[in-house]
Amino acid sequence: MVGLVICTHGKFSDELVKASEMIFGKQEDVRTITFEPGESADELVGKYERAIEQLGEKDEILFIVDLFGGSPYNAASRIVADHENMDIIAGVNLPMLLEIYMQRTNSSLPELVDVAIHAGRDAVKSFRDNFATVVEEEL
């Protein structure tokens, strides 16, 4: 199973995982990291390294962060650049995380990255656009 390291600005990662556990239940091999005001990128890399150690011997690890190009993403990039068995997804949201949980038991890292990208994109919807589509389908 792919190990997950979820990192965001502030406590969002902790709260996101708590919300996901309300829906999907407690998950194995998931670590959360918060990036707090005043922390440096080097401190964040150290947090990532400790999380990786806590995950133990994992064949693959997926970092899930809030913003592409933000400090959590950039610090994870410093680690992932040297490891073929790791990748990063930016733009985490609750539907994305739930879909990752559903698919990660039987998915490789590249498959899980694809699942995350599609789930994240598909979760963004407008009521009016969705309503218009449903009405069109019923006609």
Q: What's the pLDDT, averaged over the residues?
A: 94
- The proportion of strand residues reads 15-25%
Helix and strand pattern:
EHEHEHEHHH
Number of beta strands:
4
Q: Cα-atom Rg, whole angstroms?
A: 16 Å
Helix content: 40-55%
Strand order across the largest sheet = 2-1-3-4
Count of alpha/pi helices: 6
- Contiguous low-pLDDT stretches (5 residues minimum) are none
Look at the helices and sheets and give the structural class: alpha/beta
- The span between the termini is 44 Å
What is the 3D shape?
A: globular
Largest sheet: 4 strands, parallel
Explain this structure to me?
- By secondary structure, the protein is an alpha/beta fold.
- The protein has helices at about 10-25, 40-55, 70-80, 95-105, 110-120, 125-139; strands spanning about 5-10, 30-35, 60-65, 85-90.
- A four-stranded parallel beta sheet has the order 2-1-3-4, sandwiched between helices.
- The radius of gyration is 16 Å and the shape is globular.
- The chain starts with a strand and ends with a helix.
- The mean pLDDT is about 95.
Topology:
Blueprint lengths: L2 E7 L2 H13 L5 E6 L5 H15 L5 E5 L5 H10 L5 E5 L3 H10 L5 H14 L4 H12 L1
Parallel strand pairs: 1-2, 1-3, 3-4
In short:
The chain is an alpha/beta fold. It has helices at 12-24, 41-55, 71-80, 94-103, 109-122, 127-138; strands at residues 3-9, 30-35, 61-65, 86-90.
Q: Which descriptors apply to this entry?
A:
single chain; four-stranded parallel beta sheet; 4 strands; 17% strand
